[in-house]
Amino acid sequence: MDGKIETAFPIPTGVFAETVTEVQHYTDRLFRFRMTRPASFRFRSGEFVMIGLPNAEKPVFRAYSIASPSWDEELEFYSIKVPDGPLTEHLQKIKEGDTVLMRKKPTGTLVNDALLPGKRLWMFATGTGFAPFASLIRDPETYEKFEEVIVTHTCREVAELTYSQTLVASVKDDPLCGEFASGLRLYATTTREDYPFMGRITDLMASGKVFDDLGVPQISPQADRGMICGSMSMLKDTKTALEGFGLVEGSNNKPDTFVVERAFVD
Ligand code: A2P
Predict the structure, then answer these.
(1) What is the best residue among 29, 78, 122, 191 to mutate for testing ligand 1's pocket, by most ligand atoms within 8 Å of CB?
(2) CATH class for domain 112-260?
(3) How far apart are CA 148 and CA 102, in angstroms?
(4) 195-236 pLDDT tens trace
(5) Could you tell me the pTM of the whole model?
(6) Hey, what CATH topology would domain 15-103 get?
(7) What are the residue ranges of CATH 3.40.50.80 in the chain?
(8) How far is the CA of 169 from the centre of ligand 1 (A)?
(9) Candidates 78, 157, 187, 231: which one to mutate for ligand 1, based on the most atoms within 8 Å of Cβ?
């Protein structure tokens, strides 16, 4: 930005101050917002940054996956609202025109570079863990590297699937991604409210139901690659499941057949 933003507290050094351009609430627990993107800010689709508000001398920062793709001229974030959460209790009240702080360095392992090439990319998300995949499914590079992209999104309730369902549908209609994204599929399930597909993704992999429902073979290290984003217990259990199929965890320095990131909440 141009440095003209005025806030009650001084903006810390090494931090961008950006302007909120759009806010959309999905449920009493979930919302999305967009904000301006500094001209000098570069990131790889799937990475996260530290976000804060200019509401204290020493603002609280939390890690947020960037939900927009690297080519987008704005930045998008998808957030939970935690009652009494040091950041989200305030962040959930932001409006268009408000200021959001962002530390300058993006990072993360849910990036295409950390995976070896393969036929089919699986993105396993629960709750707000869908955010980095919202970025990656809008990046044409994902489809250059993988013929098929399957996003699994599991939430407690049906309304919590709105963001992923709307976004996947819009990607398929998008002029830039639409033609690349013909191999994109969303496998959405709930665990605490009736829905056509139900159950934890770990259980659906163990029973083989997810593979039957999608008409694909069981995961193998020859064909499949995985990215995982959700709660700590979901990461652990999904990682164990992928290791059971013979996949090996990779990193930026040592790409392999799957990568893991934790979903960052208060
Ligand atoms: P469940 O309702 O059976 O706990 P949360 O909001 O707690 O992060 O959960 C989001 C979704 O992730 C819920 O549908 C939840 O199912 C599911 N989930 C929670 N823990 C795990 C886990 N260890 N493995 C797979 N899915 C999980």
Answers:
(1) 191
(2) alpha beta
(3) 33
(4) 999 999 999 999 999 999 999 999 999 999 999 999 999 999
(5) 0.94
(6) Elongation Factor Tu (Ef-tu); domain 3 (2.40.30)
(7) 112-260
(8) 24
(9) 231
Residues with CB under 6 A from ligand 1: 126-127, 154-156, 191-192, 200-202, 231, 233-234, 237
Q: What would the pLDDT profile of 19-53 be if each residue is shown by its tens digit?
A: 999 999 999 999 999 999 999 999 999 999 999 99
